[in-house]
Design goal:
With 51 residues, the protein is mostly helical. It has two helices and no strands. It has a domain of 32 residues. Helix content is 82%, strand content 0%. The chain is flat, with a radius of gyration of 17 Å. The chain starts with a helix and ends in a 6-residue tail after the last helix.
Length: 51
């Protein structure tokens, strides 16, 4: 099981290192935007109460 996880990590690492800096920045920004939306929806669903 650990071997499979290490192979997956290695594969993703190889893909990430082959990307240009602009592509990496775009992916990171998309992730940040997604997490912002998720947090806002979670916050709204809980009546504005942070947990």
């Amino acid at each position: 099981m650990l071997d499979i996880l290490l192979k997956i990590y290695s594969f993703i690492s190889q893909i990430w290192s082959s990307l240009s800096q602009q592509q990496k920045d775009d992916i990171c920004q998309a992730f940040v935007d997604l997490m912002d939306k998720v947090f806002r929806e979670f916050f709204r669903a809980n009546g504005g109460e942070a947990q």
